[in-house]
Write a structure and sequence with these properties.
The complex is a heterodimer. Chain A is mainly alpha-helical. Chain A is built from 15 helices and no strands. In chain A, 51% of the residues are buried. Classes of the chains: A mainly alpha, B mainly alpha. Chain B: Keywords: Cell membrane, Membrane, Transmembrane, Transmembrane helix.
Chain lengths: 377, 296
């Protein structure tokens, strides 16, 4: 890798307002205009805009009317009955975003979220079904075990990366396929509900159900839990020694090593940490409605890659991750509404996500090169 | 189970061929110093376009050529972004892989009217070598692309070793700045290999969708592009070693398929190729660690 990944922490450039004299006291109007310019021309806005333009072209090329599709998409995500569902989908997507973002800060790619999530989910289901549950820890234990299991699955990639030099992007993906298959085997046979012919576990005992938030049937305490953990990550990333060392490793591995950072240990910590979030997401899905592990229900909605697109869209600003996740969740959930209402295949949202990633990658480097050229001149 | 049975060897060849073709694309990129992980998406895209062109024209060969051309054009996204705009090829490839998954599933519904799997008696598959007059055991049941894949392994090996452009390509991979200083157009060579890898993935996809079977199903590349990436990591820049790595995958898939017939769960059979590929990667890594470091 010769060019820095756009996900790696960029030098903090936010301190310099774009092109404005610092102490000249520009008129408020000019300042607002300057901010507007900076926002409109920022990489994420350009990437979303570009992706939507290209997607519209795809729609027109195959004879879909965008003026029907886009409103249907928005209604599908934000209309009264659907908003709750969008919020429910936001939780796993944000969790998977952390699963990808945490290792990415150390420049490790974790694309094996599906496998880590499936193993986490099946672990949670197995514990909820087969361990006698004490009230109180009945929810906590499966969640913790799932996080541990997801962390272990992702952690397998760490020694392969640090001792054998095999990129994590390859090993996480290669481990993911068998991991998903293994979870699928478990819910079909040893853990499966007998006599139904459907690949799912029996309903989990009531004590292990995640409490729903007041007045909602889909949104559980998973939402505040993930929100809390996200805040903890944001704090750890920007304000702690560990976060600093991770960022230093991501920016320049050799320099960090020279500075005394245990870079190999950090690779393991970040990969396992990311995997723990993926495992936790698996448990949150399984312990939430419909309160069982249904084969394919974890991986089919595509949380993992929606999250990857969101994290890359956030262009190395951790604070932007929740917002990017919210945006892409709206797109993803809205896509299903669009399919129901306007008959446009929901895979359209995958196209938008792919385009966003490509465009962000291009803009991030072009800007980086231009900034370097500007600095050199 | 007799592993020297003709039908078993045929199954190995069938499973190996798409991976070998994609891996050759990855190999030439590797030689030029480009880490190409976009093979998975391009393989899928090749399979889809092969079926679309075969469906539209009624000719399997039109499907093959169409898949090569369209996938080459698709690879131009990667080549433009990563070579011209110097974007991170890994991130761009993650994007194009996802894009291929979305586009093929979306267009499938628009063109064939349904998702999941498309197959039809009208869909022209590739002929077997036996039908073309080469009726020999094992190979006879294969498509001509299987033979072509093995020929291409030899051709790429010869090209890299024995020709001027092959030497230059290796030079670019070994020391980009030195190659540029000698006046080589580094960007041009890199564009060339990324696009050629696209065409090879188109060929691989055509073999997968019109040779191995005659259908398209969503996500049918099913990780083969990633296995090809691993094959290149295992084989380095030597085509015959990459071929061996791909054969390992082919054997694993064929054995898994056989064992499924005697009661192995389908999930285990599906995972076998990935688990075995991973173990090969680990063993190769351990072996490389044991070897004394080269003096550089």
């Amino acid at each position: 890798m010769t060019t820095p990944a756009p996900g790696t922490p960029a030098p903090d450039t936010t301190a310099a307002p774009g092109g404005e004299p610092r102490d000249g006291g520009p008129s408020p109007g000019a300042r607002v205009l300057g901010w507007a310019r900076r926002i409109v021309l920022s990489t994420p806005v350009l990437a979303i805009g570009g992706a939507l333009v290209l997607t519209t072209l795809v729609m027109l090329a195959v004879g879909v009317d965008p003026s029907l599709a886009y409103p249907a998409l928005l209604r599908g995500a934000l209309a009264d009955g659907n908003l709750e569902y969008t919020i429910a989908a936001f939780v796993p997507t944000l969790g998977m975003a952390l699963a990808f973002a945490i290792p990415l800060r150390a420049c490790e790619f974790n694309l094996g979220g599906d496998g880590q999530m499936a193993i986490g989910g099946v672990t949670a289901a197995a514990i909820a079904l087969h361990l006698p549950m004490v009230a109180g820890v009945a929810v906590v234990l499966p969640l913790a075990a799932a996080a541990l299991a997801g962390g272990l699955v992702a952690g397998l990639s760490a020694p392969l990366r640090t001792r054998l030099g095999i990129p994590a992007i390859v090993t996480t993906l290669l481990i993911s396929t068998p991991a998903v298959a293994f979870a699928s085997y478990l819910v079909r046979f040893p853990l499966g509900e007998q006599g139904t012919g459907i690949a799912q576990t029996p309903p989990l005992p009531d004590a292990t159900h995640l409490p729903a938030l007041a007045g909602s049937s889909y949104v559980t305490i998973g939402l505040p839990l993930i929100a809390l953990l996200t805040v903890a990550w944001l704090y750890a990333d920007s304000r702690t020694v560990l976060g600093y060392e991770i960022r230093a490793t991501g920016q320049n591995r050799d320099f960090a090593r020279y500075g005394g950072v245990a870079v190999n240990r950090l690779a393991a910590v970040t990969l396992a940490g990311g995997g723990a979030f993926a495992g936790l997401v698996g448990a949150l899905i399984v312990l939430g409605p419909p309160y069982r592990y249904v084969d394919g229900a974890l991986t089919a909605p595509g949380y993992t890659f929606t999250a990857v697109a969101a994290v890359l869209l956030a262009t190395a600003r951790p604070i932007a991750v929740p917002f990017a996740v919210a945006l892409l969740t709206v797109l993803q959930v809205g896509g299903q509404g669009m399919e129901r209402e306007a008959g446009v295949p929901s895979q359209l949202t995958q196209i938008v996500q792919g385009l966003i990633i490509v465009i962000v990658a291009v803009f991030a480097t072009v800007r980086h090169l231009r900034a370097r050229r500007g600095a050199g001149a | 189970m007799n592993i020297f049975e003709a039908s078993f060897l045929a199954a190995v060849l069938t499973a190996t061929t798409p991976v070998v073709l994609a891996a050759l694309g990855g190999l030439i990129c590797q030689v030029a110093g480009v880490f190409n992980i976009a093979l998975e998406g391009q393989l899928l895209w090749g399979a889809f376009t092969a079926v679309v062109f075969s469906h539209l024209t009624g000719s399997a060969w039109a499907g093959v050529v169409g898949a090569m051309i369209v996938t080459l054009v698709y690879a131009a996204v990667l080549s433009l972004a990563s070579v011209t705009f110097r974007a991170d090829p890994i991130v761009v490839a993650v994007g194009t892989n996802l894009l291929a998954l979305g586009l093929t599933a979306f267009l499938m519904r628009q063109i064939f009217g349904s998702g999941g799997t498309y197959s039809s008696p009208d869909l022209a598959g590739l002929p077997t070598l036996a039908e073309l007059g080469l009726d020999v055991p094992v190979l006879g049941s294969q498509s001509p692309l299987v033979l072509l894949a093995f020929v291409l392994v030899a051709v790429v090996g010869w090209w890299l070793r024995r020709t001027r452009s092959g030497l230059r390509l290796r030079g670019i991979g070994q020391h980009q700045a030195a190659a540029a200083a000698l006046g080589l157009k580094v960007g041009g060579y890199r564009h060339g290999v990324v696009l050629a890898a696209g065409a090879l993935c188109g060929l691989a996809g055509a073999q997968l969708a019109l040779g191995n079977v005659t259908l398209f199903s969503e996500g049918m590349s099913a990780g083969r592009g990633w296995v090809a990436v691993v094959a290149v990591m295992l084989g380095g820049v030597l085509p015959w070693r990459v071929l061996l790595a791909c054969l390992l995958f082919g054997v694993a898939e064929a054995v898994g398929f056989r064992l499924q017939g005697v009661g192995l769960p389908q999930q285990a059979a599906d995972s076998a190729p990935y688990v075995i590929t991973l173990f090969a990667l680990i063993l190769a890594g351990v072996a490389a660690r044991r070897r004394p470091k080269e003096i550089s």
